[in-house]
Design goal:
11-stranded antiparallel beta sheet, Neuraminidase, 10-stranded antiparallel beta sheet, 1 helix
Length: 708
């Protein structure tokens, strides 16, 4: 029989950070919403009805989208002749317009679209070969003619560059051509001498590329992240990429649990309509992701397979009302269900809806979570992630007539019915609370949020929230004492929360003037006390948007206690989404197969001097009486059929009372401070009444913690 599971708490609960991986670079070509679409680092393009529309991603400084449309209309040598109609084809990263006279080919690359005109036979005549395109754009050409390339620009926002014309014949001979732009036409010209001796097929080969003349584009923002466990074993990171002041697209990238890019960029929304507030959830049972965003006052969503294929679309909320600020939580109670919550600005309500991930949407109606009044405005709801049960915590901001903000919350079933009364979470007249983020394991939750005080200024805090089941009745929901979250640069924003096995993690950006850091803070989910201090994730630039997720909760029997951070380090104005892997468990855990009783023992923040330290039992039998044994030594007493590990002769025994209706309880054990106790090991085990050991007892799983 093995000893108690050791949790050697040289705490990785301020996580060990693995390598970072930069996302958002690369290219893709696929049919999106019925239109053949390409994306690259700084552009998007569509191919339809014989016209390529190349839109540079100039960022929010561009007043609106500034595309360059090119449609081939004529070709010839001594005389130009109109061309026949085009049929569109695509394969891999290549799109083609096939006409009787020539094939127009587009090779999609990260840096731009390589446009080629392929002639299997030359037009009649002996002059220069000219391919004429009709230009459709607001951009202004930088010159009427050029032998190097031609730029089409808009003030200081940037534009599009049509690269140097190059002729290539079948033998690999090349010649430089020129560009002419007059009367709304763009001519690609190859000299007659080269054309006359060229071996067919002959290719005329420019490159379309974005011209970004300013670095202050803030291209990427608002990332979110969700994991799928094995066999997928991958994260999906979603974010917005700014095209202009009126258009942000939704992009995504799969990343393996080891930090390797999986496949190419994913195009989830590429229209000219603006999007905002993208969010993602995962469904392990269906091996699918659900991505949602706001568009034209509606909440749109798409289902993705584990391989990144778009499986279908749904509207989570639509109609005449103005909807916003959606948040998704997936796999409630290890089911096929995801739940979305959002704000209806028209009715001043917080709403939720179940989404069937197996049926790609289902038909579940929306349910009202909370309704504001004439003196209270609701906004910014969020729903807890990392849920192990079939219910979740929903928290939102309430603003009164004086403009003061506070947080309220309620426990919900997946169908939107309440499991608790609505209760205050945080905020007072002296210290406002708003912009919440929350995560939990079904019974214990952590809510992080921003604060504002007339005395203390702007800040951030977190608060533990505990929920107890009560059968068919409403269970009590209670918020504990809050603690401040501080960063090295003053202001804290972009808070994101995740729950790991036995510890919680809050990620945030710390901002002050030109100093911008991304930090991760490990906290005890039962008290919100600091486990280890914050970890510097990124100190390189002006960060916008932070997301965090945990892989600690999935259907497997031994889920990994790992996760990932996604953030946007704006360096010199240009944003790239970055992912950092992390481990956030309290050391390494091995299990003891004593088959004595169900239950999992957790001990976050085993740090010398931690007066709030406690050992937690989860998932045991409901309402049983329990005691706990703590000791610095093991006796490993075999007690038919259980194993009692801690040595009671050099330890302490605490009688705890009854477990909760979900088989949980917490035993406090204040830890002494000082260097002498660092490295000491504390063994803890719960003992329940009702078993064969000594007539009326049985042991649970145990835990051993080495103090830092």
């Amino acid at each position: 029989m093995r000893l108690l599971p050791l949790v050697s708490l040289f705490l990785w609960a301020v996580p060990a950070l693995a390598q970072s991986v930069t996302l958002g670079h690369g290219c893709a070509l696929d049919v999106v919403d019925g239109t053949l679409t390409a994306i690259g680092d700084d552009y998007k393009a569509t191919f339809a009805a014989g016209e390529v529309e190349f839109t540079p991603l100039l960022g929010r400084r561009a007043p609106h989208n500034l595309p360059l449309g090119l449609r081939v209309t004529h070709a010839g040598r001594n005389e130009l002749a109109p061309l026949g109609p085009a049929t569109t084809h695509h394969d891999g990263l290549q799109a083609t317009f096939v006409r009787p006279e020539l094939v127009e080919r587009f090779d999609v690359r990260p840096e731009g679209v390589k446009q080629s005109f392929v002639f299997a036979a030359l037009p009649p005549g002996n002059g220069d070969l000219v391919v004429r395109c009709r230009v459709r754009t607001e951009l202004t050409p930088s010159a009427a003619a050029s032998e190097r390339g031609l730029q089409f620009l808009h003030a200081n926002a940037g534009g599009v560059e049509v690269g140097q014309v190059l002729g290539i014949d079948a033998n690999g001979r090349t010649a430089t051509g020129s560009l002419r732009c007059t009367d709304g036409n763009l001519d690609f010209v190859l000299p007659a001498a080269f054309v006359q001796s060229a071996q067919l097929p002959l290719i005329v080969d420019p490159l379309l590329a974005a011209v970004v003349v300013t670095s202050a584009t803030l291209a990427d923002s608002d990332p979110d992240i969700a994991p799928l466990p094995a066999p997928t074993d991958a994260y999906l990171v979603v974010w917005q990429r700014a095209v202009s002041a009126t258009d942000r697209d939704v992009r995504a990238q799969r990343v393996s649990a080891a930090g390797a890019l999986l496949g190419g960029l994913l195009m989830l929304e590429t229209s000219t309509q603006d999007t905002s507030e993208v969010t993602v959830a995962a469904s392990p049972l269906t091996s699918r992701w659900l991505v949602a965003w706001v568009q034209l006052g509606d909440i749109k969503a798409r289902f993705l397979s584990a391989t990144g294929a778009v499986l279908g679309s749904t509207d989570i909320a639509n109609g005449p009302n103005v909807q916003g600020t959606p948040t998704l939580a997936g796999a409630l109670g290890n089911s096929n269900l995801a739940v979305g919550v959002w704000h209806d600005a028209t009715t001043n309500q917080v709403l939720c809806r179940r989404i069937d991930m197996a049926a790609l949407g289902g038909t579940f109606p929306a349910a009202v979570v909370a309704t504001g009044t004439s003196v209270q405005t609701l906004s910014g709801p969020t729903i807890s992630r990392d849920n192990q049960s079939d219910h979740a915590l929903v928290v939102w901001t309430t603003t009164n007539l004086l403009g003061l903000r506070s947080l309220r919350g309620v426990m919900l079933e997946a169908d939107g019915s309440p499991r608790s009364a609505v209760v205050p979470i945080a905020g007072s007249a002296n210290n406002e609370a708003f912009a919440p983020s929350c995560a939990g394991d079904g019974e214990d939750f952590v809510v992080s949020y921003r604060t504002s005080s007339t005395l203390l200024g702007d800040g951030a805090a977190c608060v533990p929230v505990h929920f107890t089941f009560a059968g068919a009745a409403l269970g009590p929901l209670a918020a504990g004492a809050s603690r401040a979250i501080t960063g090295p640069n003053g202001d804290v924003r972009h808070l994101a929360t995740a729950m790991f096995q036995g510890s919680a993690m809050v990620a945030f950006a710390s901002v002050n003037g030109a100093a911008h850091d991304v930090r991760a803070l490990s906290i005890d989910p039962f008290t919100c006390s600091d486990c280890e201090g914050s970890l510097a994730v990124d100190t390189a630039g002006n960060d916008t948007g932070v997301a965090i997720c945990s892989r600690a909760f999935d259907p497997s029997g031994t889920p990994p206690n790992e996760g990932a951070l996604a953030y946007v380090p704006i360096v010199g104005g240009q944003g790239d989404v970055t992912l950092r892997l992390l481990r956030a468990d309290d050391g390494l855990r091995t299990e003891l197969d004593i088959n004595c009783t169900s239950g999992k023992v957790l001990a976050p923040c085993a740090r010398a001097g931690n007066a709030g330290y406690g050992v937690v039992l989860r998932g045991a039998a409901a309402n049983e009486l329990a005691l706990v044994i703590h000791s610095t030594a093991l006796m490993n007493f075999d007690c038919n059929p259980c194993l009692i590990g801690p040595d009671t002769t050099v330890g302490v025994i605490q009688f705890l009372g009854a477990l909760s209706s979900t088989g949980g309880i917490r035993a406090s054990l204040p830890l002494p401070g000082g260097p002498s106790v660092v490295g000491a090991t504390v063994h803890s085990q719960f003992v329940l009444f009702g078993g064969q050991c000594l007539g009326n007892f049985r042991g649970t799983m145990g835990i051993s913690c080495t103090l830092q």
